[in-house]
Amino acid sequence: MIKKYIGEKNMKFYEILMEEGKKDGVVKNVVGGIIVNQNNEFLLLTRKRDDFYGGIDELPSGNMEENETIVEALTREIKEETNLNVERIENYINSFDYESRSGKKSREYNFSVKVKNVNNIKLSEHECYKWQSIEEVRRNPKITKEIKFTLEIYYFNLIEHNISF
């Protein structure tokens, strides 16, 4: 099933990402998905106010479960949080480290993904969602600098310059 999303070569790359995280002391692995609509706007979800980092706007993302691959985790988290079905993982964009609520060193691995129907969003864990252009992202004070940087990389390479990874 996993190979329908990615090839053998990409599976090895994802294993390398996990190995590097272990070497760096990462205890908690998180995956994030960049979803873009036909207007080149990014899907952002607003965390519930009483949640960790409450009120921020973020990518659909979540923790990897034990023995779960990046592909499985990304597909599951996007489905759980948005009700969207991942068609394919397009590109690895970047990763960043942060400290979790429990004080664990965490790393979020971010990927651009293609979903089947961007109009079928149903939230389960967030207050609301919005579509924002890169200009709106740049002005949005509720997005962390790490997510802004992630979206700038995506925008610069894949939209502005049409560079494929």
Beta strand count: 7
- Work out the helix count: 5
Low-confidence stretches: 1-6
**How much helix is in the residues?**
25-40%
Rg to the nearest angstrom? 15 Å
**Widest beta sheet: strand line-up:** 4-1-6-5
Topology of this structure?
Layout: H1 2-5, H2 8-23, E1 28-34, E2 42-47, E3 57-58, E4 61-63, H3 70-82, E5 86-99, E6 105-115, E7 126-132, H4 134-139, H5 145-160
Parallel strand pairs: 1-6
Antiparallel strand pairs: 1-4, 2-3, 2-7, 5-6
Structure characterization notes:
With 165 residues, the protein is of the alpha+beta class. The protein is 33% helix and 30% strand. The strands form two sheets. It has a four-stranded mixed sheet, sandwiched between helices. Strands 3-2-7 form a three-stranded antiparallel sheet. The relative contact order is 0.22.
Question: How is this structure best summarized?
Answer:
The chain is built from 5 helices and 7 strands. By secondary structure, it is α+β, with helices and mostly antiparallel strands.
List keywords for this structure.
four-stranded mixed beta sheet, 30% strand, alpha+beta, 165 residues, three-stranded antiparallel beta sheet, 5 helices, 33% helix, disordered N terminus
